[in-house]
Inverse folding.
């Protein structure tokens, strides 16, 4: 009778740290290689990340849910005509298409405190899976604070800076854009939120505050909204966002400082 030898997978001393991160650590090893299961898991994660980059914004359910709570919605596009152009020309993803500009101009919006934008970014899957619970809680929290809210914009082929043009055209004092972040091998569905006071075309990243890793296995919807509302309240109190507005992780303190190391980041 033939005996099948069992694969000898050596334990990894970092195993206990896996409880604190989804990063690819403590994979173990078989000889000089990683175990077959981990090799296959890597390929699956890579496939998920690639699929996320080419995923599309599922606007139907978002529009339906927003209309149920009587929140007006606008569907917009950037100047990137398709996904390939979007990936090759980041600059076009930062600007609204001409027909979207005309749409915003024609509605003659009433000035509002906040405008909320949902954009596909580099992972529309992140918006499809995570946007609704966050936006729903955010709308409730903002209305309790008596902030006025403009129509919510759903934007395809968009980069972060497109929120500056949208916020300006909607005559909003502050813009919040939720956007799919660049997918990694442990988080292809991560959503980011960027907050900008007094949005204007041409602003750069030092004028924004960012909250990252909003997803079921990351920053929860409730905690994300708490952080966003803290920054929104401080932004209106101090009339600024960006490097001069600090989030002190619940200490409820904000410092105003000029950082000579701050540089513009091309999104």
């Amino acid at each position: 009778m033939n005996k099948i030898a069992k694969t000898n997978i050596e334990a990894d001393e970092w195993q206990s740290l896996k409880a604190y991160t989804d990063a690819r650590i403590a994979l173990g090893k078989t000889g000089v290689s990683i175990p077959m299961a981990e090799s296959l898991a890597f390929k699956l994660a890579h496939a998920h990340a690639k699929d996320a980059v080419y995923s599309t914004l599922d606007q139907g359910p978002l529009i339906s849910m927003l209309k149920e709570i009587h929140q007006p919605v606008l569907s917009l596009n950037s100047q990137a005509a398709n996904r390939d152009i979007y990936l090759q020309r980041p600059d076009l993803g930062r600007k609204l298409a001409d027909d979207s500009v005309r749409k915003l101009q024609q509605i003659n919006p009433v000035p509002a405190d906040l405008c909320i934008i949902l954009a596909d970014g580099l992972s529309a899957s992140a918006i499809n899976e995570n946007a609704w619970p966050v936006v729903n809680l955010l709308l409730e929290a903002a209305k309790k604070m008596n902030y006025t809210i403009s129509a919510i914009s759903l934007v395809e082929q968009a980069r972060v800076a497109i929120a500056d043009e949208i916020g300006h055209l909607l005559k909003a004092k502050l813009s919040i854009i939720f956007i799919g972040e660049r997918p990694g091998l442990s988080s292809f569905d991560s959503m980011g939120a960027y907050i900008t006071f007094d949005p204007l075309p041409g602003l750069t990243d030092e004028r924004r505050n960012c909250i990252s890793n909003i997803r079921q296995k990351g920053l929860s919807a409730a905690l994300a909204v708490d952080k966003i509302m803290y920054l929104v309240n401080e932004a209106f109190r101090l009339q600024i966002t960006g490097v001069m507005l600090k989030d002190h992780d619940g200490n409820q303190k904000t410092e105003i400082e000029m950082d000579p190391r701050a540089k513009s980041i091309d999104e």
In short: The CA atoms of residues 85 and 92 lie 8 Å apart. Strands lie at 73-77, 112-119, 152-156, 172-180, 191-197, 208-214.
